[in-house]
Amino acid sequence: MGKGTMGRGTKKSINHSMREHDELDKEFFEKKIEKLENEDMSIEEILNARADSSHIIDTSSVISNKYEDMSRTTVEEILRSLADDAHRRKKEKLEYKDMTIEEILRARADGSHNTDTAKVIPKKFHRANKNSPMEMSSKVRVSTFREVIQVPKKLVRDPRFDSLSRGTFDPDGFKKRYSFVFDEEYPKEKERLKMLIKKSKDPNVIEESQKQISSMDKQIKSWSRKSVESEILSEHIKKEREAAKKGKQPYYLKKSEIRERKLIKKYNELKAVGKLDSYIEKRQKRNASKDHRYMPYRRSDKNTQE
Questions:
Q1: Enclosing domain of residue 17
Q2: Domain count, the chain
Q3: The domain boundary residue, chosen from 81, 110, 139
Q4: Where are the annotated segments for Disordered (predicted)?
Q5: Do 37 and 62 touch, CB atoms closer than 8 A?
Q6: CA 217, CA 223: separation in Å to the nearest integer?
Q7: What is the pTM of this model?
């Protein structure tokens, strides 16, 4: 057997392997054969042949002609080369996995992308600035729970405890603004409730109205007491400021002194109206009843005889 010919045994083994792998490698062999045929043809000849449908592939003849110069090549080596080609295509597919279409076309156009030696460098994603969205690969699966639009964190503010809206408390201003509630509104409301108690026959309505009247009386009494205290303190502060201008040390009133001054002011008001004597009488009776609780009881006759 000459150097440029192929033996009968080799042809039979090739045909036998083709029959065994016909279902698996038919399409791949046809593409390889078509490529081998087109190597010696010009582009015009290939287009003309495909246009008039005269380009018919003869698988057996092409294989025999192609492998006539491969007398020493065995079927195992041919199949190994085909497996290497498939492995190379799979490797190339994995390398192109994380690349965009523009990057793949650019790499193939200038021929700089060598699939055999090029290392796949993972792309580092970053943001242009802190408010821009994160750039991610389209191959990565998006999680179900995700923040689509980044919004600034909501700061909950309670105006009751906020220094911007709380401001400073002005007792004199508060008294001037809300004095009408205790001087005008509450007395009117009390009169209305008293009329309602007289006309109504429902015990629940009467009881509720009486509770409201007692609550109003307590609030009015507390308001008058606080207003008197504020007046006493404001007068004392004015005097102390004038004394401080002269170089004296400021003096702060004690609670007992405030109570004493309140009592003196109340006596002066009652004396001006003429009700001071009756007020003192009632106060003495009240104090006597309190003192009577602490007096010792008289012993019984039975205990004295024993």
A1: 8-110
A2: 3
A3: 110
A4: 1-23, 280-306
A5: yes
A6: 10
A7: 0.39
